[in-house]
Amino acid sequence: MKAKELRDRSDADLAELSRQITRDLFGHRMKNQTGQLDDTSQLRKARRDLARIAQVRGEKARQVAAGAAGEQSGSKS
Questions:
Q1: pTM higher than 0.90, yes or no?
Q2: What are the angstrom distances between the C-alpha of 74 and each of 46, 64, 70?
Q3: How many CA atoms does the CB half-sphere of 29 hold within 13 Å?
Q4: Which domain holds residue 70?
Q5: What's the CATH number where 45 sits?
Q6: Measuring CA to CA, how many Å separate 50 from each of 1, 9, 20?
Q7: CB neighbours of 5 closer than 8 A, spacing ≥ 6?
Q8: Do residues 46 and 10 make contact, with C-beta atoms less than 8 angstroms apart?
Q9: What is the DSSP string of 6-72?
């Protein structure tokens, strides 16, 4: 999943996607420990997708905070 695709999604959608990937990652870890996981690169991909989602959610939160701070400082004049 690319960061550009994630930036187009809503915050609620990103939260749901994060929960889904976390559950998938847990399943991949269990399969890996029991020797049932055929493609171990799925672990790495899932961890990186989670990191991308967290990064995009942080970017959106900072944009909202910066927008709110800009509105407050502008109204004090």
A1: no
A2: 42, 15, 6
A3: 8
A4: 3-75
A5: 1.10.287
A6: 10, 14, 10
A7: none
A8: no
A9: HHTS-HHHHHHHHHHHHHHHHHHHHHHHTT--S-THHHHHHHHHHHHHHHHHHHHHHHHHHHHHHHH
For residues 72, 73, 75, 76, the Cα torsion angle rounded to the nearest 10 degrees is: 120
Residues of the chain with pLDDT below 70 are: 74-77
Which pLDDT score is estimated for 45?
97
- Phi then psi for 13, rounded to 5 degrees? -65, -40
When divided into structural domains, the chain yields a total of 1
Whether residue 44 contacts residue 29, with contact meaning beta carbons closer than 8 Å, is answered with: no
Tell me the one-letter amino acid at 38: D
Q: For residues 11 and 22, what is the distance between their CA atoms, to the nearest angstrom? A: 16
